[in-house]
Amino acid sequence: MDLTGKVFGEITVIKNVGQGVWNCLCSCGTLFEVSEDDLVSGTLKYCVHRKVKDLSGLRFGDWTAIRYIGNSSWECRCSCGEVKSVRTQYLKDGRSKSCGHDTTRFNDLSGKTLGEWTVLSYSGNQKWRCKCSCGTVRDVESYFLSSGKSKSCGHSTNKLAASGNFIDRTFQDVTGKRFGELEVIEYLGKGKWKCKCDCGNVVNRDRYGLTSGITTTCGHSINIRMIGQKFGRLTVLEPLSGYRARCLCDCGNETVVYINNLTAEHTRSCGCILEDMKLTREQIMEVILNYEKEYGERPYLMDLLPLINRSETVTRMYIDKFKLATELNQNFRSRAERDIGRIFEGAKASDRREIYPYELDLFIEDRKLAIEYNGTFWHSEAKKEKYYHRDKTLDCAKKGIRLIHIFEYEWENPGKRERIEKFLKALSKQDYRVINGRDTIVKQVDFSEVDEFLKSNHLQGSAKSSTNIGCYAGGELVGVMTFAKPRFNKDFQYELLRLCFKHDVKVRGGAEKMFKRFIEWYDPKSVITYCDISKFTGSVYIKLGFKMYGMKSLTEPNYSWVNPYTNEVCSRYKSQKHQLIADGYGDETQSEVEIMHGRGFYRVYDCGNLRFEWNK
How far apart are CA 415 and CA 417, in angstroms? Predict the structure, then answer.
């Protein structure tokens, strides 16, 4: 598309500079480059410099703003003569008041003894030069000293599991002592000890893990929890060194298998399955009849797979070969899809027409709405690459279709399933009532009331917030909007954390009314928010005046660690490498991914978030 000479707002396009980027001239005289998407979509109508309020000559504490240097920053001169670059937001909200030279702005700690630290002198930038009782000299931040969060260089600080407090102790030599199956050989420094396990492995462990009883082996028994679990025809009897396990096959044979091969379903028997690979029609019918007897209905395709221990492709082959289609439930592929499909009248299952050759599990044509039910194993990293769910969502969006992803581990969680069902029923307009915004009252709300409301109505539940605004109809809380300091991008003054309405209510203009009151009461300069595109489109934020900047506003997909057989979710905190090792899983030679795979957990990626920005 040739845009040369065209005008978009106050921008005149001059020439193409390649790769979808155009050289443009703003009405203020600024030359700059803009992407074609931002021009055509109307996202950008003037150069960024027009958005910057002139702060030249204004004082902020000891700073005097000199000139704007781009990237949301100003060149500033401190009262001591120091010239530095300072973020605009840091000047406005008072986070930066000087270059840090003025120690009188802080509590003077010189000469004081705090824990095992002796404060020597102020070293600038809110840090103090300190000497530890062991002789180590280091710069420590004022906050960590005054709050007591730092009491030494780390050589002798141990967290006691019983009390949960940090207590300083003198250095304890544990050389030669035994902790479980580990014998301590020598101290390596930085809190690490070389240990020899009874199995012969030599590993490095921290003293807290040893003395607290968390670490008792080299890691050869980290999969102890898998004992009794069944994978295909194999039942785990005991874990072995080298991340292997001794298993009993249904045929009676014992075999040793790598745990990763078990959890990834690469190994499903001792080898007898190869000799008995073929199933008869009578065998499959027996499984179907047993299922019908137990559940009172015929199985769906996806429910049959684990029962006959075959993949979807092989199972379909058997269905065609033995003409078993009439023996199965045909409207949907699984009970979960059936339950979701019942919420929407006219939902079509397994639609391949809209984004051929890909399949949509459920498609509601008159609403241009599609729903994917993502089984944990088949939609984990073992079977789907990182961008699979995001790309499928974007492919649907290009066709004007809103795609919603329901992940199995969400659906199998009773609390989350209840909120998802409310969300889907609201989309289908079941149990739905409409309230006009002019008939509501907006006021500030206590967090306790907001917390309860979000836990019942928001898909992600509650989130700690400092500013809470509620929308009331006849005394009933029907909507909330919550804010706090940004969690990720500190260039913004506020982050809009939650925007939520009661699941069975639509408040026309309710979001606009709450955001308008927020602006009136708090006079924000900038706000950022995020939208999970696996469930939502973010169109409401556009109505509120937020902007997004093409693909640059799309974040990387997030992930959850999930056991595909139990749908147990391991939190991101618990799956950090240092936390896994502290809990007795794996060792320093392994990565987080290797340890988690060894535990039977796989990453399930979502679609990522859209980032929206609002500036005054």
Answer: 5
Rounded Cα gap, residues 87 and 74, in angstroms: 6
Residues near 52 by beta carbon (within 8 Å), at least 6 away in sequence: 68, 88
pLDDT in tens, 126-162: 678 888 887 788 888 776 787 777 788 766 433 333 3
Residue with tokens 């399933």: 417
Instruction: For residue 267, tell me if it sits in a domain.
Output: yes
What is the dihedral sign for C-alpha 172, 176, 177, 183? positive
Does 121 reside within a domain?
yes
Residue 610's DSSP bridge partners are 531, 554
- The two tokens of residue 260 are 């990763």
Same domain, yes or no: 235 and 255: yes
* Highest mean pLDDT pick, 98-107, 275-284, 332-341: 332-341
Is the pLDDT reported for residue 166 higher than 50? no
Residue with tokens 């075959």: 310
Tokens standing for 324?
């078993």
Region of poorest pLDDT, from 28-32, 101-105, 234-238? 101-105
Could you tell me what percent of the chain has a pLDDT over 70?
Answer: 86
Q: According to the model, what pLDDT value does residue 346 have? A: 77
Range list of β-strands (E), 157-250: 157-159, 166-168, 178-179, 182-189, 192-197, 202-206, 230-231, 234-240, 244-249
Query: Whole domain around residue 77: which residue ranges?
Result: 59-103
- Calculate Rg over the CA atoms of the chain: 30
